[in-house]
Each structure stands twice: as structure tokens, then as C-alpha cells.
Amino acid sequence: MEKQAIISAQDVNFWYGDFHALRDISLDIEAHTVTAFIGPSGCGKSTFLRLLNRMNDLVDDSRLEGHILIEGEDIYARGVMVDELRKRVGMVFQKPNPFPKTIFENIAYGLRVNGVRDKAFIEQRVEESLKGAALWNEVKDKLRKSAFELSGGQQQRLCIARALAVRPAILLMDEPASALDPISTSKIEELIYELKSEYTIVIVTHNMQQAARVSDRTAFFYLGELVEYGETKKIFLGPEKAQTQNYITGRFG
Ligand SMILES: Nc1ncnc2c1ncn2[C@@H]1O[C@H](COP(=O)(O)OP(=O)(O)OP(=O)(O)O)[C@@H](O)[C@H]1O
């Protein structure tokens, strides 16, 4: 029996002005899986990812049709609180973007803006989040130092820890390792693998090997359409569509 989807997109169409950026996208994502979105530049991967926590709300003249359900709730229904949604659906961006604050305060921030005042609780959550992002051992003696003193790879794990601090159910990652060196990249990949026992992860990546290594399922987008979606092994070893085959073998994109 199919497990209930934690993310369910139903006939999603999206426009930037007159530009029809996403066409009839339907896909279900199960909890505690890693899903990779792949496809050539400009095919709509990031647009679709950003719809999952309403990051496109502020884009002028944009329009959505269809439904996106998170844990069974239509996140575009009237009355949905976007702040609450983003607590459940966290996001990590391509370039590490720590706040100009200490390491500790970067993680504590999300708790403080949510009204948490209990110091012991905050300290414990900071530690747990840094451990969850495999960064604790490297920073435990310098929590009061500026986040900018960390390397790029450490900053990205800090941003992951920051996202984990409010205990989201879902973590969206938009090319989280593309600005990092190979060692930092493999740390992020290991981390993604570990995090899926507690979180559901959706990652946009241009790196096909990365998609093959970290994901359970892969969605191939092309020109705003979802061409093929399925088990990662199947997508890479025996895709059904010629377009998918051409892309993964590097014939275009
Ligand atoms: N704010 C915006 N206003 C207008 N058009 C946009 C906007 N953001 C993206 N687009 C257009 O929508 C299309 C999809 O963009 P999107 O960033 O989702 O693609 P992508 O597959 O993530 O690309 P990349 O891999 O290069 O990041 C592109 O043609 C892009 O130019």
C-alpha cells in the first residue's frame, strides 16, 4: 500500500507574468525520503521548490493554479499562516547565508523570534541542531564567535543547523553544495543521508552524481514540465523517456 504523501502537488501551473514557468505538475513525496529535482538550467526546479514553502509569494505578477498539500493541508488555502508553514518547511539556499551574528545566535534566532525565552532550552536546542548538522565538534568551543569566521562548508552546515532548530518536518535545499569544495560537498551529502531518518528532504541539484548518491527518488524537469519521476535507480539506469535518457547521459543541458 502507498504511504500517505507528506508533500502532494496536484495539477500545479505557475506563471511569472505571461511566462508559463510550470505546467501541470503533479507529484507526491513520501515522508523520510530524499527527492532530487534535476533538469537543465531554467526548467523550473527552483520555482517548484520555492512553491513548497511559499517563497514565491512576494514575486510581483506571479500566479499559481492547482494545489500543494503539505501533511494533508492546502498551503495556499485562505488563512494559512506563512510563518507557521515555514517552521514546518525549512529552506537552505545555494550560497551559505549566515546572519551577521555569533554561531550560537544564528541557531537561537529562529527560536527567539518564535517567542522561546527559556535559556536552558535554547542552549540544548542549539547543541542538538549543531550535532544534527554534523558541526558541533568543530564549533563547540567557539559558539560566541562570528559565523563569518567559519569556512564556506561550515557556514552551509550552520545554515542547515539553523533550519533544523525549529524542527521542521521538511527541508528544502536549493543546490546546497554547489558553492562548496569536494570535501565539504561530501560532508553535506553524508548529512543529507543521515537527516532523512528524521526529516523529508527535497534537493535541487545540477550534479547528477550527487542526485544518484543521495536521493531515493528523482524528478526530471524540462521546460517547465515534469518529464519523469520515480526511483532514482530507475531514472538513472533505465528511464522511460528519451528526454530523461538524453539528459542523464549528458546529451543536452
Ligand atoms: N522572479 C522571476 N521573474 C520572472 N521569471 C523568472 C523569475 N524566476 C525565474 N524565472 C524564470 O522561470 C524559469 C524557471 O526558473 P527556475 O529558476 O525555476 O529554473 P531552474 O530549473 O531552477 O534553473 P537553474 O537550474 O538555472 O537554477 C526560467 O526561465 C526563469 O528565467
From TrEMBL:
Pfam families: ABC_tran. Residues 7-248 form the ABC transporter domain. It is an enzyme of class 3 (hydrolase). GO terms for molecular function: ATP binding; ATP hydrolysis activity; phosphate transmembrane transporter activity. It comes from the Bacteria. One of its GO terms (biological process) is phosphate ion transmembrane transport. NCBIfam families: 3a0107s01c2. Part of the ABC transporter complex PstSACB involved in phosphate import. Responsible for energy coupling to the transport system. This is Phosphate import ATP-binding protein PstB 3. It comes from Rikenella microfusus. The gene is pstB3.
